[in-house]
């Protein structure tokens, strides 16, 4: 049977082109790989190569013709044992691009559901009489890793100074002694490389915890966090698992200047395929770290250097694991909601205390997980208080705060009695000078003043 | 100021230490070609021909608008994937590569239908149509992709090798990348850690002479890529990537070294891609004569065909193989063209594994 040679698409955007030149003539023998014609696309002149052998029959589009649509039959090719002159007269019809494509599926709203949504999940009850220990966030994180390493042989820690030095911020203190160098691996200073190795090890079936000395350095490695870890399960149609935890301190520390002081929460929280956790107190740090290590999805776990040394009450349980994706009401209130995460939760609680003295009863919500964000908790609280302020230690532009504002506007508009207000850091690289640094960072006074404003009490 | 010490006398410990850097090359130079049985050779021939015909058809489907986006063909480089992967231990060793990945999957014996259907973005594709040409995986075969970011697969491969070492399963990772990726920083970060930790990994540079449109001499200060591991104490091998028997022999030597826990190997396979970098590449950076010369004198399939005929395989037998392969490829193309696109409900599946 004669083969139709069709105007090829030679780039992802090409719809038509110019048939610049025929390099073979009617009656010529064509071998596979022969260049038959030159075609000009919107970008370049390309060669049109034969993929079948035979004899060139009739040329249907003369050279020099412009605006030839992709898919148009430009010539006929006679196969083995066929008479080329016979196919010369075949009258092919102009074709349409994408012929044979089954594009028959019209997406309907009903078909597109969003899975991975579990509702009604709460923190497990702490049994009555459970002893409450006072521990630092640093110890809580270390204990969470140690417990999970005892539980699952596949869990290991890698990063700069995590082993012999006992952790740059001592979060991995003691792990080398208990688990040995196979499971507590000191890496060279090579973030891109070891983030890739950690991600690959997770794809290979292990459960790596990759420590970044700070998340500022993870910018060198962000390609693996996003392109390799977050997207591969989707791109593989669900075949590739990547149960890795990237963890380390995030956000401003103290007087370390702009390059060491940034909150990456909003960056990672914008990426489908990632789980992003940013706890505040020791109990949440422990319970969510354990959940993160057990999680089948890649997790970015954002800690805070200034909170590492703070002590909190933590229930002494054999296995303290908390649900990912659930916010926590840190303080109940009825007049206004303050949404916060990480270090800003402490500031929000302080602000709430001050406001209580002035007769304003504030509810404080710790988001704990930034992706998936617990919208229900935000909207439920808003429905109760009708006023909402978001406190975030980070830049205001394209922030988690911006996202919360959008959620309130789109889904909580009818409940609003005042504009939702952001309280964030100033929109500048963090300065070094003590006075300027103080001016640039979020503080309790700023939250108090914003709350008064939305309560029309200023 | 004290002078730097002169080079040490022959036979000194330092020299013995350096011996390993070129010992694998010396072993290959002693015997270049793998002693393949005629069955093995016929199998190599079939696999290379399958890749060639599959890719030709993929190019054709691209021209018809059935394949979209980027599509990087493996034509000319077939001997590399076939030679190396034939030496792997099935279900144990892992493989990872970049976006020019169709050939590596076919060399595993993965059904051409599900590969072609992925290229056309159909539900039956190996990634359910959600990955496309550059993002294909088969965890069943321990083939870990299929990665679109140049060089990323090298560090990921280091991680796969770490998993083999951690699990003490005796497996190795084969990590392919191109001469272009060889200039990415993370490649050297990985070399350093792989050598430091003696990871079981074979780094394979498929040097096809052009990083997209830039010839190696215009992009690389050291164009002898097999030497680039020297600073990390990784032994190098330079291999004729147009000769499947030489590639297989090199694989035997390299895999043995790696399986003996002696650390990584860097293998440069000199090869050539006949087509453009991707389907939308006009390939104006090289002459038509250069490409034709390669096809006429270095073609890996023609080369093996010659040996097969010399050893008594008949032209008719080879023609029959070609006919069978054309049929397989035609069926794959028909399947890929006629399979339905993914259901709309697939839009939100596989973003995350768990529910939260």
What does it look like?
The complex is a heterodimer of chains A (458) and B (356). By secondary structure, chain A is an alpha/beta fold. Chain A folds into 3 domains: 86 residues, RNA polymerase II/Efflux pump adaptor protein, barrel-sandwich hybrid domain (OB fold (Dihydrolipoamide Acetyltransferase, E2P), Beta Barrel); 184 residues, Thiamin diphosphate (ThDP)-binding fold, Pyr/PP domains (Rossmann fold, 3-Layer(aba) Sandwich); 127 residues, Rossmann fold, CATH 3.40.50.920. Chain A is 28% helix and 22% strand. In chain A, the strands form 5 sheets. Chain A has a 7-stranded mixed β-sheet with strand order 11-10-12-13-15-14-20, with helices on both faces. In chain A, strand 14, helix 8 and strand 15 form a beta-alpha-beta unit. In chain A, helix 4 runs parallel beside helix 5 and helix 10 packs across helix 14. About 3% of the residues of chain A have low confidence. Chain B contains 12 helices and 8 strands. A 6-stranded parallel β-sheet of chain B has the order 2-1-3-4-8-7, sandwiched between helices. A two-stranded antiparallel sheet of chain B has the order 5-6. In chain B, strand 3, helix 7 and strand 4 form a beta-alpha-beta unit. In chain B, helix 2 packs antiparallel against helix 11. In chain B, 55% of the residues are buried. The N terminus of chain B is likely disordered. At the A-B interface, strand 5, helix 4, helix 5 and helix 6 of A face helix 2, strand 2, helix 6 and helix 7 of B.
